[in-house]
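Re: that chain you flagged

S.,

Sorry for the slow reply, it's been a week of failed gels. I finally had a moment to sit down with the sequence you sent. For the record, here it is as I used it:
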Amino acid sequence: MFLSSAYDSNSFSFGFGSSCVARCAAIEAELRYLPNYSGRDISVQAEGQCVLVTGVVETERDFYRTLNIANDIAGADKVILRLSLERGLRA
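Prediction finished late last night. Pasting the structure tokens below so you have them in one place:
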């Protein structure tokens, strides 16, 4: 993951005391730096104790990449994923 590997001496750790807003920012940063990512209009917001991810992706691979990143950072039980899969949109 980008945030955990950017610098050898720096790492992000989200423990029990971390805020949902920090998790949202971390997910957004990870998605922003994914190579060949087809996401459009991706939004990551705090909804209570959960993270809501919305937007559009063009491939199943990017759908699962988004899901895995959100699950890794926020926890699988704290993610609401509302992505549309629209294939073949790239010109």
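What I noticed first: The beta strands are 40-47, 50-57, 79-85.

Talk soon,
D.
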